[in-house]
Write a structure and sequence with these properties.
The chain is α/β, with parallel strands linked by helices. It has 14 helices and 12 strands. The protein folds into 2 domains: 138 residues, Response regulator (Rossmann fold, 3-Layer(aba) Sandwich), CATH 3.40.50; 161 residues, Rossmann fold (3-Layer(aba) Sandwich). The strands form 3 sheets. A 6-stranded parallel β-sheet has the order 2-1-3-4-5-11, with helices on both faces. A 4-stranded parallel β-sheet has the order 7-6-8-9, sandwiched between helices. A two-stranded antiparallel ribbon has the order 10-12. The structure holds beta-D-glucopyranose.
């Protein structure tokens, strides 16, 4: 009981610590590498040296493999998890692979060689880690999949993520309401739309597209939505490694070709990074306030929220990385200390070998009407950060 209390206390302290940063570690949009360990930082740090045997992580090390620092959300994820784990006495090895599959494989191989007590992995390519995952399993090192499901492996114990299909549904439902597609359908009107979907090696991207199409397909079928490129399937719209540059290039091509004589009304983008790329393409093509399209995104990055405030992006999906980190930390504690973490889904996330027990957090649509309440009152960003 005493131990349980200590764990709870430490967890709430960790959460408070992260939250009282004023922004949950989310102050990094313009300065991506300065509040967390950089790629090369392979040294476990000091919190675990306290030797407090009451702490669940005392004397234990967690290896965290993150995909990239090019997008703000992963920096926040890494920083939040590191802070929360250290507050529980764990030592943490945090590494970023800069979207390089081989680099991530070697980083995890090193963590296995170091005999960390648990691995937390957000994969660059979810299916490319099977060999190193098997090595971890043979070495008795449990793995928790973080945000992105690890595919084709039996070495993963738990999965912490958001409801990824729900992200797609929320984006699509936002479009339906904001453009009043029911009204448009009744009046025989239509809107043009183009899709910019996530990476084909990320299961989240596939589910997100499914969620979008579940809601929007009927409007495409009856002509209320018109996709002039004809590119609506996942295969036609997925963008490898979630590349902002590719999204921008596609958008430039679409605008100068298919949309030379007619405005693009809706940019259905699966990621804030794509929204930035499309924004540049639209500006270069001469779009103004008068004909600026509805643009969606995902992650509620600082820059995206600023763009929402200035009208250059319409909405994003808020995924509280503090909460996700907290859920993941309870999974780490469970596998390391032999307890049961909280799970709320045992059916959805089949990785091809097993259905991975998951905790799914709820994504929320954010726009000009609710950003203050959700993000500022919720302590995710400060008003000052958004005003800068
Ligand atoms: C995450 C998204 C993120 C995307 C690009 C996905 O796996 O779920 O939140 O926008 O990767 O980094």
């Amino acid at each position: 009981m005493k131990k349980l209390l200590a764990v709870l206390l430490a967890l709430s302290m960790a959460f408070a610590l992260v939250a009282c940063g004023g922004n949950g570690g989310n102050n990094t949009a313009d300065n991506t590498a300065n509040n967390t360990n950089n790629t090369g930082d392979n040294t476990a740090n000091n919190a675990g040296d306290s030797g407090d045997a009451e702490q669940p992580g005392a004397g234990k090390t967690v290896g965290i493999a993150m995909p990239t620092q090019s997008s703000e959300r992963w920096i926040n994820d890494g920083a939040n998890m590191k802070a929360q784990l250290e507050a529980l006495g764990y030592e943490v090895v945090l590494q970023y692979a800069e979207d390089d599959v081989q680099m991530q494989v070697s980083q995890i191989e090193n963590m296995v060689a170091q005999m960390v007590d648990c691995l937390v992995i957000a994969a660059v390519d979810s299916g490319a880690l099977t060999a190193v995952e098997a090595q971890a399993k043979n070495a008795g090192i449990p793995i928790v999949a973080y945000d992105r499901l690890l595919m084709d492996t039996d070495a993963v114990s738990y999965y912490a993520s958001f409801d990824n299909k729900g992200v797609g549904t929320a984006i699509a439902e936002y479009i339906v309401e904001a453009k009043d597609l029911e009204g448009a359908r009744a009046a025989g009107e239509s809107y043009t739309i183009e899709f910019f979907m996530g990476s084909p090696d990320d299961n989240n991207a596939v589910l997100l597209h499914q969620g979008i199409m579940e809601v929007l397909q009927p409007y495409l079928d009856d002509g209320t939505l018109v996709c002039k490129t004809g590119r609506t399937s996942f295969d036609e719209t997925c963008i490898l490694r979630w590349s902002q540059e590719t999204a921008q290039q596609w958008c430039e091509n679409y605008l100068s070709g298919f949309y030379a004589d007619e405005d693009l009304d809706i940019v259905c983008s699966a990621f804030d990074g794509f929204a930035y790329g499309c924004r540049s393409a639209l500006e270069s093509a001469g779009y103004t306030e008068e004909n600026w399209p509805l643009i969606t995104g995902q992650d509620a990055e600082l820059m995206a929220v600023k763009n929402i405030i200035s009208g250059k992006q319409t909405m994003s999906i808020y995924k509280d990385t503090r909460l996700l980190a907290e859920k993941c930390v309870t999974m780490v504690n469970a596998v390391v200390n032999g307890t049961e973490p909280e799970i709320n889904d045992t059916e959805t996330y089949d990785n091809g070998v097993l259905v991975v027990p998951s905790y799914l957090c709820t994504p929320v649509a954010v726009d000009i009407n609710n950003y203050e309440e959700l993000l500022i009152d919720g302590g995710y960003y400060t008003a000052e950060q958004l005003a800068e």
